[in-house]
Amino acid sequence: MDPELEAFVPLFPRADLSDPPAQRERLAELSAAVPPPDTSGMEIEDRTVPGDPDVPVRIYRPHRARGAVLWLHGGGFVMGSLDTEHPWAARLAEGSGAVVVSVAYRLAPENRFPAALDDAHAALAWTAEHAAELGVDPERIAVGGHSSGAGIAAAVALRARAEQGPPIRFQLLNQPGLDDRQDTWSRRNFTDTPWMNRDTVAASWRHYLGSTPATPYAAPARATDLSGLPPAYIATAEFCPNRDEDIAYALRLMQAGVPVELHQWPGAFHGSQALLSADVSQRQLTELGDVLRRALAG
After folding, report:
1. Which CATH number goes with the domain that contains 276?
2. What is the pLDDT of residues 179-227, one digit of tens each?
3. Which domain holds residue 73?
4. Is 89 helix (H, G, I), strand (E, B) or coil?
């Protein structure tokens, strides 16, 4: 493990998804302790976009933005909010120069699949329809997220392909949760990794799916055809249970003719980019902004 990250491991909490409400409160406490981002160069607005039910979003609008990204927070499908994602959504907007539409999708287990996907798709449709109001090119809209949110973003891209819109320029997938199965080496063997491990990832999928069989819109790794999807950036962490399914998905995208940038971060673990004092964490966050800036400007 990266020495700077390893020093924090004894202090880094374990996710306990047996009690989702309590874990949501814990995540809120952790998020409140993150050093605040610089938001002086952007406008921030809370909105509610039409859906069934309507979907809360927080819009980060840097000056002179040309493109936008629909951004979906992590949290194992069961936790996370506009407030807990604020430090990261604001940093992404600042680093990329893109409008970030952060989505408060409904959480499991109270709202199982496909609630989160429906909310994300509704927010994407609204973003595309209101591109002029947001000051962005409707052909320069990306989807992205972290962890479970990145998995939902990948599912949004699959759904948009099937429904022939809205058009998506790029997928920004940071340590995505893509597969409900325990088939990969990293999912089977990472039993004691920090924050997320084999058991917590399995619990998150149980909360998300309940008794509903997984489909590609729930677990994108189950999709048999990945052709025609938007170009993607996929970041993985060495000690993340999702690592191998993410690498496999990147390879399958490439084999289907989709341009992919894959970055495997050695010495990192799931969510370790939140430890801002570590050099590798700073590089991870900087790269997300740089990649998105290039993708929307190209």
Report:
1. 3.40.50.1820
2. 999 999 999 999 999 989 999 999 999 999 999 999 999 999 999 999 9
3. 3-297
4. helix
